[in-house]
Write a structure and sequence with these properties.
This protein is an all-alpha fold. It folds into two domains: about 100 residues, Chromosomal Replication Initiator Protein Dnaa, Chain: A; about 70 residues. Helices cover about 65% and strands about 0% of the residues. Strands 1-2 form a two-stranded antiparallel sheet. The radius of gyration is 21 Å and the shape is globular. InterPro entries: DnaA_C (IPR013159), Trp_repressor/repl_initiator (IPR010921). Pfam families: Bac_DnaA_C. GO terms for molecular function: ATP binding; sequence-specific DNA binding.
Amino acid sequence: MSAPSPITIPAIIDAVGCVLGVRPREIAYRHRDAKTAGARQVVMYLARSLTPLSTGQIALGLALSDHTSVLHGVRRVRERMAADSAFAVDVERARAMVLSLAAAGQARPGPDPVAAAERVLVGDRDHAAVRLSVDETIAMAVRLVALEELAVGTYQLLCLLQAFAADAADAAARRDAIIALGDALADELAGLGYEVTETPAPQEKTDGEAHQDRGPAAPRAAE
């Protein structure tokens, strides 16, 4: 029996295309007719509930300009499902298909952007770069932009922590901002396939044990 496969945007696109009668590549590459646009919104809706991807990462994966398109698409699907029972049945059929294929280990995997980048960097770079598929190139671009956004968020968090340490009088207000930004960064890391380990609750230590404290656990790649 095959091991379960992760649920990816390509797998959701396949299921939605099958149920709604739209070619997967038309969903993936922004064809603008009403039927294809509606199918793409269903992909957004299912991706939000079936994957750890943020709205920004879903937008990048579907070649959309920003996360507000995903928010609008999810809202539109909910409205259509409430008003049209046949459409709601189709959406749930697509959801069931994705879950079934993933459970059987048959869901289409997305391209691996890290493996693609490594192929370019090892050996003949010019030759390897031109042999990348369109999907691999897009996946690398999505990953790069997501990592850049993470870097910006991390810098903002470091600035807040520095200000928090320097100004005790304003610590309470800054604490809420630090927690919110930390949660957002954790969500982005989860969407990139990382698992953030829980920091153990502090325990009383003897003087001899205090030097062994290693601080918060670092993010690690999810298996």
